[in-house]
Specification:
- It is built from three helices and four strands.
- The protein is of the alpha+beta class.
- It has one domain.
- A four-stranded antiparallel beta sheet has the order 1-2-3-4.
- A hairpin with a 2-residue loop joins strand 3 and strand 4.
Length: 112
């Protein structure tokens, strides 16, 4: 059965703007050797379909090592409520940033 997640990938250079064509070429390069990326991402880095890409961390760590000037941000939304995160990859390393959900305090002034 497994756990399905929807993925989106963005690519940025650390100091200059990249053309869309260049970004799409990089995404195509990722989709070839990593077959799960091919199921998860469309040619622009958007959601192709929710899938089980269990090795996304290892795949993007490896891939980002080939492009030391680029930052890869993988956004994920899992099938469980609140499972939302961004993972940033650069130089073969990763930083995970999980979504923080809050509910504001009651504001009684709104009832006057």
């Amino acid at each position: 059965m497994g756990y399905y997640t929807s993925y989106k990938l963005s690519v940025k250079h650390i100091s200059v703007d990249l053309s869309e064509d260049y970004i799409y070429d990089i995404i195509d390069e990722l989709r070839v050797p990593f077959s799960d990326a091919n199921y998860a991402l469309d040619e622009c880095g958007g959601i192709y379909e929710s899938t089980k890409w269990y090795d996304h961390e290892a795949d993007l760590k490896e891939f980002s090592g080939n492009y030391p000037e680029l930052i890869f941000t993988l956004h994920g939304e899992g099938e469980e409520s609140g499972d939302i995160w961004d993972k940033h990859f650069m130089h073969g390393k990763m930083q995970k940033c999980e979504a923080v959900m809050t509910i504001p305090e009651l504001d009684l002034r709104l009832f006057r």
